[in-house]
Amino acid sequence: MSTIFIAGQRWISNPEPDLGLGIILEAQNRRVVIAFPAAEEERTYAAAAAPLSRVLFQVGDDIDVPGQGRLVVKEQQENSGCIVYFAEDENGDIHPVPEQILSANIKLSNAKERLLAGQVEHHRRFELRAATLEQQNTCKAASTLGLLGPRVQLLPHQLYIAAEVASRAAPRVLLADEVGLGKTIEAGLIIHQLLLLERAKRVLILLPDSLVHQWLVEMLRRFNLKFSIFNEARCRQVDQYEDDPSSIFFDEEESKEKEENPFEDAQLVICPLSWISGHERRQGQLMEAGWDMLVVDEAHHLHWQEDGSSSAEYQLVERLSAEIPSVLLLTATPENAGIDGHFARLRLLDPARYPSLDAFRAEQSQYEGISELIQGLLDHPSESLADSNFTAKLSELLEPAQLAALATKPDATLIEKVVRDLLDRFGTGRMLFRNTRASVGGFPQRVLHEHPLDAPAEYQAALALVDEESALHPELLLGDTWIKLDPRVAWVERFLLQHPDEKVLLICSTMNTARDLELQLRVRRGIASAVFVEELSLIERDRAAAYFADPEDGAQVLICSEIGSEGRNFQFAQHLVLFDLPLNPDLLEQRIGRLDRIGQLGDVNLHVPYYQDSGQEKLLSWYRDALAIFSQPCTVGNALMLEFGGELLAALGGKQNTSAFDDLISRASVKAEELALSLRNGRNRLLELNSCNPARAAELITSLESEQRSDSLAEYVGILSDQFGLVHEDHSDNAVILRPGDHMITEAFPHLPEDGITGTFDRDRALSREDMAYFSWEHPLISGGMDLIMSSDFGSTTVCTIAVKGLKAGTLLLEAFFSPSLQAPPWLQLHRYLPAQSFRLVIDHQQRNLTANVAHKKLNQLAQGIKKTVMPALLREVRSSLTSMIPHVESLAETATKEWVSTALAQYQSDRSAERQRLQALMSRNPHISPAELESFDAETLLGKDALGNMQLNMSALRLAIVSQ
Ligand SMILES: Nc1ncnc2c1ncn2[C@@H]1O[C@H](COP(=O)(O)OP(=O)(O)OP(=O)(O)O)[C@@H](O)[C@H]1O
């Protein structure tokens, strides 16, 4: 026989089973033409490589015949290569059914049906499916879902926060790590986890203009998350509404028809806050679009006063956060505008918990006492618990049973639990996270370089007419020629010319100063420079920042107005020129934070050119000697300004003699130390304990390192590419190039660009090679490929032969893979309670369970393909054995299901009841937890219990191995 295909036979497409049951139209000249009536499609293949499987029904199978419904096959006869079935209807009448008239709508939905119908695929596909099943179950069961994929260094403080926050049903938190410790990365990790857990689908990020593109790039580059920037131009593309009634073209009816909500056009949206907060109609649309999560960076710009007045930005965020379940606010300087502002932001997150500023102030004063108790428990528990004073204080806070347990056996686990309870209930709360350089460690040195200069006579002359603050800015006093007169300019020129290979960031307070300076350096001195100021468009600003970042042909100096002080990443530079000093210490901290941030590899050199014997020199001394901000981050600056600000201003204006000023500095410095000590012992200590649990963080890192499994992933990607027809080339050690191939079995492959992608399996390499993707099990190309397989029948059945010495020829081995099916939302993370693998069974035709004796890998090694031409006859021969083997594996799986369910339920219930006790304890003492939270916790427990109780093991893949001679 030249071909196995005969016109009239019914076959099904392996890669496109959804086309339904096909009928061979023509089979000659080594070509086969097949029609798929259900899909109204036709395909032509080379007969030898046609991806088709013969569909043969057996006695007892149901068949579907148009006009006659479902019939049961009683007998079949072959006639010139085609089959005629004799099938019984529900009245017991037998009808002859030539296969040509069978319904084209066929769905062989599970592995069992497909194997019995003879729809089998190459054994390599089966192996890929089995590997996919295994990996998916491992990933789903991992407690670190969503943390593996991001291209980030595994930093303990970030991972701890991300895992802790994302474990909450609807997290509402303030991420307030010190400048440059990675709040954007923490937010990205949280967003990524919530998206993977399907706790969030629609995410809205509100940002200052200058950070819009940086976030866009960070989200894509590090998290593979494609956000869209929404501004007026983007909205107008969707919404054609004309909102100017005075226009002669205005037609209200027509305009309304054209109105569409542009924010419904994307799931992941970034919006410049300045634009949206000033646009009422767009705000309405934004509110209506519905979001699962809101993120606001540099949240200290949201202004609020105790009298109820607030900025437009605050009002918008207040409205949004009342509607959106999950909210992340980010700021490095939460007390930028004093404690009121800090309170105002916490109030956005939970108005019930933070009802009044007075109560909030009172609560702050308790922190030191709570911290002392916690310290006592952690540092010397036995001694502390033997002290009656200590236990008396503790008894005011703990349940009697908890205190009794502590007195009896104060072991490490119990102490940890009590400390956590105290932190939750009486500490800074579950809403505020703040890591500091001191707690994280490993940061560079700040090195101050003072550059005293002689003030020009013109400055001295102008001084008499201005206030203290203006006196700090000679550039505003020296007139149009300031650039020539101001000795700081000449100093900057000299410094840049003497250090031609150093990148230098210069920050000054106003846009005009920045522009004048840049012009002077670039045009008059030929220094490669760029300017970063508010009048530039977002794209121009990013262009300037990119020009500065370019290590080869980039600018030597970037000159920024104050908008360059926030959020941007300039840690590749090691010199910061503070052309002037701001009066707000948090602003100065933000400026220094551009260089002093994660990724800074050298010292942070801080240059201050100043006029001798001027207010500038005094301000420098204030920051250097009272706040010590040039050697370490200062967290008490605002408190000092509140107490000494008036005196300082007077001193800057020269209204104090030298010794009075020295006295001010020494009093302020003593106060700074006192405040810092009190914060260290009180609030900061509590925050530190709440913001990172090093043991938990270390566990997370260990899990992530072991879940990376780069070698298995590389192997998996190789097989995936082969089976889907992607071109797969080695790039270098641990890196590959993937491209669409000419013989792909699907039209496109998820997340595979047309011109291909280069990726590495090595996290460190991915961190240093921006041009490569980081391939992890969570990379969308890989997870997309896995979904492609598991959402179809790809590779679900195969038949192969194996030659094994110990087994008799003709022995049949049936290998079955089952995957757990849980009807529950993924955010419940119930897979954590199931074994991290799929359920596998191997039996022989005598129904013996050989699972432990026959390894899956061994079968893979031994498997030999079977020619298509012999497959139908072979399957006919083994069919009766198969029909008894399959129910047997199904019954074994049913028994296993019961065991899985009972183990999972026991663990789930014990975890949930421990968590419930914690919540109840929290509720009984303070309003951190509302009763509604406990109710929703109980509802969630019930949901989880039901879902686990109804868990099923679904047969997902079957391999029949026939032992050959
Ligand atoms: N885990 C990490 N892996 C790699 N790079 C990181 C990591 N964490 C932070 N970075 C880098 O460190 C820099 C600072 O991080 P990020 O911008 O998130 O800090 P931030 O706290 O938001 O800063 P700011 O207070 O200035 O807004 C960025 O360049 C960021 O890409």
UniProtKB/TrEMBL annotation:
Decide whether keyword Translocase is in the record. no
Q: What does this protein do?
A: Transcription regulator that activates transcription by stimulating RNA polymerase (RNAP) recycling in case of stress conditions such as supercoiled DNA or high salt concentrations. Probably acts by releasing the RNAP, when it is trapped or immobilized on tightly supercoiled DNA. Does not activate transcription on linear DNA. Probably not involved in DNA repair.
Is Isomerase there in the keyword field? no
Keywords attached to this entry = Activator, ATP-binding, DNA-binding, Helicase, Hydrolase, Nucleotide-binding, Transcription, Transcription regulation
Per the UniProt record, the lineage of the source organism begins with: Bacteria, Pseudomonadati, Pseudomonadota, Gammaproteobacteria, Cellvibrionales
| Name this protein carries in UniProt | RNA polymerase-associated protein RapA
Q: Which organism is it from?
A: Zhongshania guokunii
Query: Which InterPro entries has this protein been placed in?
Result: DEXDc_RapA, Helicase_ATP-bd, Helicase_C-like, Helicase_RapA, P-loop_NTPase, RapA_C, SNF2-like_sf, SNF2/RAD54-like_C
Q: Which positions bind ATP?
A: 177-184
